[in-house]
Amino acid sequence: MADFVLYSHPMSRGRIARWMIEETGAPYDIKVVAFEDMKSPDYLALNPMGKVPTLVHGKTVVTECAAICAYLAEAVPEAGLAPKPEERADYYRWMFFAAGPLEAAVTNRALKFEVTREQSRMAGYGNYASVMDTLEKAVSKAPYIAGDRFTAADVYVGSHIGWGLQFGSIEKRTAFEDYYARLLERPAHQRANEKDDALIAEMKGQPA
Fold it and tell me: Which domains are delineated in the chain?
């Protein structure tokens, strides 16, 4: 029996967690949760938000993609995905930046909500343009988000950028495209995508 169980759906943020767990090389089981089952009592007992992904490790339950990435990096230290002391500042800074300002700015823009100049003082992310400019600087200063070495923070930040480039919620800037192109070369990323894409194809092939 695998140490980790990942509750996910291939058309969700669960793809981030799948990529991360593939990077660790640890054995895991995946349980696909249908959208209509995410609010069921059994699943809500695991994740009160009724969202995926959820990671179960023995008696430990972890939700929220950024937390799952950080947890797995420490739970499987031999994978070398946790930050070294000199990488910690950028590792935590940009992982939380993606979970906070970036996610909020992109979501609000997708919902057709643009903050006014006065509202930007209250909004934690300021405005969409400043978030994009800040993110561009972050991915331009080194090959990876915390320096010269790939870490779990790249899984999380890179997933946001990849998703945004694909669906147009993040501007197609050269710095973003170059950064994400490096991540696409990772075998674990390719494996994760192949597995989730296969699940999507299987679902589409099932009778309605």
Answer: 4-80 (3.40.30.10), 85-188 (1.20.1050.10)
